[in-house]
Design a protein that fits this description.
This protein is about 50% helix and about 20% strand. It is α+β, with helices and mostly antiparallel strands and about 80 residues long. It has one domain: YefM-like domain (YefM-like fold, 3-Layer(aba) Sandwich). It has a 3-stranded mixed sheet with strand order 1-2-3. The longest helix is centred in the middle third of the chain and has 21 residues. The two termini are about 45 Å apart.
Length: about 80
């Protein structure tokens, strides 16, 4: 991972994008603070996406079948649970 100043990134953006395309991650700093990170895009295959969606659908159906209905009063009480007033 390489770090560059924002002014350098502005001047050499195309070169930095070439480096990212080759697999490098670049952190951009302005006044010592990290403001952005350029990293190569990770390719996701369609089969793993379909598998994840099928798993979520199966879980939703399992929860739907096993869950018992809650009384309205309990649902209304739960909506503010954990809120700090």
């Amino acid at each position: 991972m390489r770090e560059v100043q924002a002014s350098e990134a502005k001047t050499h953006l195309l070169r930095l994008l070439d480096d990212v395309e080759r697999g490098e991650t670049i952190v951009i700093r302005r006044h010592g603070r990290i403001i952005a990170q350029l990293e190569p895009r990770k390719e996701v295959d369609a089969a793993s996406i379909r598998k994840a969606i099928a798993g979520l659908k199966a879980l939703r159906e399992e929860v739907r079948k096993s869950a018992k209905p809650l009384p309205t009063e309990e649902l209304l009480a739960m909506r503010h649970e954990g809120h700090k007033y």
